[in-house]
Amino acid sequence: MLSAEMNERITRTDTGTPCGELLRRYWQPAALVEELDGPRPVKPVRLLGEDLVLFKDEAGRYGLIHKHCCHRGADMTFGRLEDGGIRCPFHGWLFDVDGKCLEQPAEPVGSNFCNKVRQPAYPCVEKNGIIFAYMGPGEPPALPAIDAFNAPDAHSFAFKGLIECNWLQALEVGIDPAHASYLHRFFEDPDEELYGQQFGARAAGTDTPVTEVLRNYDRPEIKVEQTGYGLRIFALRELDEVKSHIRVTNLAFPNAFVIPMSNDMIITQWHVPVDDVNNYWYAIFTDYRRTVDKQTMRDQRLASCTLPDYRSVKNRDNNWGYDADEQRTLSYTGMGRDINVHDQWAVESLGPIQDRTIEHLGATDRAITANRKLLMQAIDTVEDGGAAPLDDPDGLVAIDTIVASDNWQDDWRAHDMDRRGESPWAESPWRG
Ligand code: FES
Ligand SMILES: [Fe+2]
Known about the structure:
By secondary structure, the protein is α+β, with helices and mostly antiparallel strands. Helix content is 21%, strand content 26%. It has helices spanning 4-11, 18-23, 147-150, 167-173, 210-216, 294-302, 324-329, 339-348, 366-383, 408-421; strands at residues 28-32, 42-47, 50-56, 62-66, 80-82, 85-87, 94-95, 101-103, 121-122, 124-127, 130-133, 156-163, 221-226, 230-238, 243-252, 256-260, 265-275, 278-287, 305-306, 311-312, 399-404. Strands 12, 13, 14, 15, 16, 17, 18 and 21 form an 8-stranded antiparallel β-sheet that branches. The site of fe (ii) ion has 6 residues, from helix 8.
């Protein structure tokens, strides 16, 4: 339970807010690369409450500039892509990807006014299907050396989706391991493995669907430890006297989580504020052993959302597809087999910004409690002029596997090293 003031402090991210200043010190996803495909690569983007325009110049460089032209405020979304930048159609001022003013064609010949103005702009970098932006002060940090970034393109797939509520409650579902046994429960398991679907695999080395494990062992033991990147979260389910099922998931501070998708694939997922009451999830799916069937994964996801906003077809306007009959016979939620819809309901139904003054956190909410503590500390640190913390990816591993109950601390690491040993690209995540 939080005070109303504290809830405001950790959820609001517009310019000048303490939490907004913190999030701006980390690279944030701004768009999918595929959103700039096509003949005119210019796109309006709203990010952390700021209205911006993302474009790709003739040399293939990305620019993310303020929406309103620094001359008299016209909307740069309608700009002309030409002459090494984007040109405002109102009076022809031309800006490059860094916001440098290159031309002011209506100003007198010989004027140097061009050197005195700048269009506010943020640095961008493209990685494995996503364009990331750095919106903070000073030089941007290096992108962290996480598996999602280290993997070659052929082993990665990126996608996004709109969630119509505050970013923090959306993030918190990803660090809540207990909900998988309830929110994502099915009364029947799939006959075969479902490629590209969360919980679509068999438990490692068995014929048992992960959905069956989650349903039958519904009181996981949850342990949380702090790391240099945020939190490592263990959910242990004791299967018998010698074996346990383990899911190792992670909070990658401040607004991402890294979780297993299947035995060989992981999901690295950011929740970036559009504004205080909307956020986008951006995910990179990374496979250690095999190349990713991008077409299949894309088709699966496009079937359940509408473009250009990547809004879920099942959403608040249609009760997330809720069907009372189905809730009795097929799924715990009555909202179909797509677990992303379940999560969508779970976070949007809390309201635009969850009222945390009325909640009661239990033992299964350990990671949520721990994360809020980190968030409050980090907001204070940055507010006091300190550096943004928890940016060391050493040891960031997500895995879903079966371990010896009396040796689980070593076993899950050994299983991770096994898959890396067979991977054409993944090295040990453990330094030192
Ligand atoms: S308002 Fe953009 S050039 Fe004048
Ligand atoms: Fe979930």
